Amino acid sequence: MSDSTNPRPRILVVDDSRLIRASFVKFLGEEFDIEQCEDGGQAWELLQKDQAFNLLFSDLAMPKLDGYQLLEKIRGSDNPDIAELPVIIVTGKEDGDDAKERFLSLGATDLVSKPFHSAELVSRARSYSALRKKVVQLEKQVPVDKLTGLSTREHFMEQGEKHLALARRNLYKLAVARLAITNLAHLKNEFGAQIAAKMIALAGKAINENKRTEDLAAHFGLGQFALLLPGADPQATAQVWARLRNRINNFQLKVGDKVATISFATGIATQHVDDTVTQFSQVLHQAEEALRRPAPAVEKTTPTTEKAAPATPENKDEEAAPIQVSVDALLTQLKRREAPATTQLAAAMRSLLPLLSLANRQFKLDMDDALEKITEGLAKK
Questions:
Q1: CA dist 307 to 54, 129, 187, 249, Å?
Q2: Is-contact 160 168, C-beta < 8 A?
Q3: CATH of 10-141, one of 3.40.1050.10, 1.10.287.70, 3.40.50.2300, 3.30.470.20
Q4: CA separation (Å) from 75 to 166, 192, 194, 373?
Q5: pLDDT tens-place string over residues 266-307
Q6: What angle do CA 338, 341, 343 make, to 5 degrees?
Q7: What is the pLDDT of residues 113-152, one digit of tens each?
Q8: Contact status, residue 277 vs residue 246, Cβ threshold 8 Å
Q9: The domain over range 153-319 is classified in CATH as 3.40.50.12780
């Protein structure tokens, strides 16, 4: 029997023969938890919902998706838990050396031939499930996501708890931002998994380059990102987010005669941390709730071609020059009952934010929430 602290390894068996599936259960059922699928299509659907398998055995000739197609889908997935799953192909006497070489070139971990013996099957299952478990353990110890170069979710949550404790002890603010690529399924369908993965990597690079030194960015998987900004007031949060939006809004990747762009949604939670906040997951949950809200949080790209773009400050990794606005001039316009341009008004408010923040602290005006809303609103302009 297994328990929650030491669960048994899980194996997915994919074969349209009930007799073959029953053989796997008979030989491996005492030591492993066996999940069964009748064809490759059913197995692929299951893997989209549940990736907690140590090993997969697949037959070759099956309806919907055969062994070749299922293996190609697994190795082409942008989810590392699926793409790196050990896959053992079950071959028959009719499968020659060419077929076996093709399986291995597509990324099969190993081959086992029918009729198989119980000792051989148990040995393969033990070896590869143990190897998979070890690899997963080692990956958790390395706090860097391989695709994006950002922190892993596990490392982000661990560091978030530490920063939460510091924020409560020193009574400073803690901001968490969540970002999600919303058109990832379209990118995969239109351009393929490799291009979708490249766009995720570009987004991760932009987040890493535009955060503050003290901030922590993480890839949560499948185009989901998080950003931790310790001690950030609303103005600092808005500045980081404005830089990030400017970079992601310029993403464009030419693929043949088509162009791949990114659509994304954002959510930000910023607050003073008090005794009511006991876990970092509470702050993260607030950001995720904001992420799930409908537009105007959803932004679409206004791309410029990477190779052929003009040499603007953005292409040089520099900030665009700020709009220079005289507050006195805007007040004069108001006296004349003339409405200033939106860009001028937004620029004036940004220039006044440091003064308003200082007055809020010095005179104890209790304007934190108001300043936060102003800053978040200006970040969208």
A1: 42, 45, 20, 16
A2: no
A3: 3.40.50.2300
A4: 42, 13, 11, 45
A5: 777 766 666 677 888 888 888 888 777 654 433 433 333 233
A6: 155
A7: 888 888 889 988 998 888 888 777 766 666 888 889 999 9
A8: no
A9: no
Q: How far apart are CA 97 and CA 113, in angstroms?
A: 12
pLDDT, the chain, mean: 78
In contact, 78 and 197? CB cutoff 8 Å: yes
Domain borders along the chain are 10-141, 153-319, 322-381
* Residue type for position 95: D
CB 57 within 8 A of CB 20: no
Q: Residue type at 373?
A: K
| β strands within 131-203, DSSP E | 173-181
Compute the residue count for the chain: 381
Alpha-carbon distance 366 to 225, whole Å?
A: 32
pTM score: 0.51
Going by C-alpha positions, the residue among 207, 234, 243 that lies closest to residue 377 is: 234
Sheet of 110-113, strands arranged across = 33-37, 10-14, 55-59, 87-91, 110-113
How many whole angstroms separate alpha carbon 53 and alpha carbon 129? 9
For the segment 332-372, what is each residue's pLDDT rounded down to a tens digit? 666 666 666 676 677 677 667 666 776 776 677 777 777 77
Residue 305 pLDDT: 28
